[in-house]
Specification:
Length: about 70
């Protein structure tokens, strides 16, 4: 069965220090490079999400607009 276009699934093993390695294919597809900072969002019922960096910047800008307007 093929995955829908643009949809992916990978596995990662958690090490003793709680670290995971993001699979190379995922790093390439999402432009994740050494030294990048990622945001992890968590929901007790839905799990953990790692949104693209670009979406975080957009969300942050909406919450904290530069001009002080809502």
């Amino acid at each position: 069965m093929d995955a829908p276009k643009g949809k992916y699934a990978w596995t990662a093993t958690v090490g003793e220090k709680g670290q995971i390695v993001i699979p190379k294919q995922a790093r390439v597809i999402f432009g994740i490079n050494p030294g990048d900072t990622l945001i992890l969002l968590g929901d007790v019922e839905r799990g953990i999400a790692i949104p693209p960096k670009e979406s975080f910047a957009e969300w942050f800008g909406k919450v904290f607009p530069e001009n002080g307007e809502d």
